[in-house]
Fold this sequence. Notes:
Elements: H1 4-35, E1 52-53, E2 57-59, H2 62-72, E3 84-87, E4 89-92, E5 98-105, E6 109-112, E7 115-117, E8 126-133, E9 136-139, E10 148-152, E11 160-162, E12 165-167, E13 171-176, E14 183-185, E15 188-190, E16 195-200, E17 206-208, E18 218-223, E19 229-231, E20 240-244, E21 250-252, E22 255-257, E23 261-265, E24 271-273, E25 276-278, E26 285-287, E27 295-297, E28 300-302, E29 309-311, E30 319-321, E31 324-326, E32 342-344, E33 360-361, E34 379-380, E35 388-389, H3 403-424
Parallel strand pairs: 1-4, 2-5, 3-6, 4-7, 5-8, 6-9, 8-10, 9-11, 10-13, 11-14, 12-15, 13-16, 14-17, 16-18, 17-19, 18-20, 19-21, 20-23, 21-24, 22-25, 23-26, 24-27, 25-28, 26-29, 27-30, 28-31, 29-32, 31-33
Antiparallel strand pairs: 34-35
Amino acid sequence: MPSSLGVRNIGVARVSVAILIVVTLVTATMILQLDQSPETPPRELPARIEYTSHSPILINNNSDFVEMASLEGWNGTGSAVFPYKITDYDIDGSTARASIYIGNTTAHFLVTGCYLHGTYHATMNSGIYLCNVTNGVIAESNCSNNFYGIELGPSSHNNIIRNNTCINNWHGIILYSDSNNNTLMNNNCLLSSMRGIVITFSNDNVVSKNNCSCNYNDGIFIYYSINMIIADNICNDNGIGITIGGNNQSIRNNFCCRNLEGIQSGTTFSLFIGNNVSENQDNGLNFSSGAHSNDVENNVFYINLGYGISNLPGATNNRIWNNSFIKNNGSTTVYDPSHIQAYDGGTDNWWNSSGGYGNYWSDWTTPDANFDGIVDKPYNLTAGVGPMDYYPRTTPAPPIPEPSILILAGIMIVAFVMVGRTRKKP
Length: 426
C-alpha cells in the first residue's frame, strides 16, 4: 500500500501536469493569435549586405551558365548537384532589360543576397527576369525601384521565390504565360504603383506568407489561372486586398484589412476558408457575375463599411456558412433592414450548410427558445422577401485549433496519463 505521502505526491504531480497543459495551450493560442493579428507589421526585411558592384548579367542558355560560372566563380550551391550561386551583387539595371536576365535554362541555380534595381525607367524592365526557366531559386534579395521587381514568364516552372523585398515597383512580383508550379513565399511586396503580386494565365502556383500591403491597386491579383493556393498572406491597406479569378482556387487564412475592398472574386469551384476580412471601406468579399459553386466558411467579416459579403447578379450556387458577420454595413446589435450585413442579388446561393448550420450575425442572436445555438427566425439578406440564412448561429463560429496545438494537447495528455500510471506502480 502506498503511504499517504505517496498518494499526496501523486495528486500534486497530476495537478502540476494539468496546470502545465493549460498554461501551454493558452500560451500557444496567444502566440497564434498574435501571429495572425491584422496589425501584424511587415515581415522583417533582409539584413544589410555588403554588396559588390556588378554590371547587368545576361544568361541565355545552360552553356552560358557554364561559361560565366567559370569566369565569375559561381560554382556551388544551387544544388542538383551544386551548380550555380549568384550572390551579394549590387546591379543597376538602367542600361539593360533586367539587372539579371536568365533564359532557356534547366540548370539549378540560386540568386541570393543581391540588390537589383534601376529599371523603373522602362516599361516591363525588371530587377530579375526568368524566361523559360526551371529549377531556379531567388532568395533574400532586394528587388526594388524597378518596373517589375521579379518577373517570371513565359513558361517558367518549378521555381522558388522566397524572402525577397520588392518595394516601389510597378508590380512587385509577376508570373505570366504558362508559368506553373512555382512557389512564392515570405516576400515583402510593398508600395507598388499597381500590384504587389500578379499571376496571369498560369496554374498550380503557391502564394504563401507574403506581405502584400500598401499597394495602389491590388495586394494579390490572380487572373485566368487555376489550382492556386493563396494562403496566410497579409494584404492590408491596398486598393483591393485580393482579386482572384479562375477555377479551383484555395484562398485560406489571409488577412485583408483596411483596403478599399477586401476580396474581389469571379472564381468558380473555389474554397474561401479562415480569412479575416475586416475594416475595409467597401465590401469584405464581393462575388462578381459568373462566380459560382464556391464554398465560403469559417471566415470573419468585421466592421466593413459595405456588406460583409455581396453576391452580385449572376453569382450563383455559392454556399456561405459558419462565418462570423460583425458590425458590417453600419449594423448595430439590433437588426435594421437598411443595414443588413450581407446582400444576395444572385440566384440559388445558400447561406447555411445542408446540415442546418448558418452564420453568426452580430445583429441577430435571439430568440433561441430551445437553446440549440440556432436563432429561431431566419436572417433576411435582401431587406424583403428573398434569400435568407435559415439557421443563423447565436454565437460566433468557434475557431478551429491549429494542428500544432492539437498535437501538443495530445502529447501533454498522454504524458499526464503516463505520469499517473508510472507513479501508481509500487
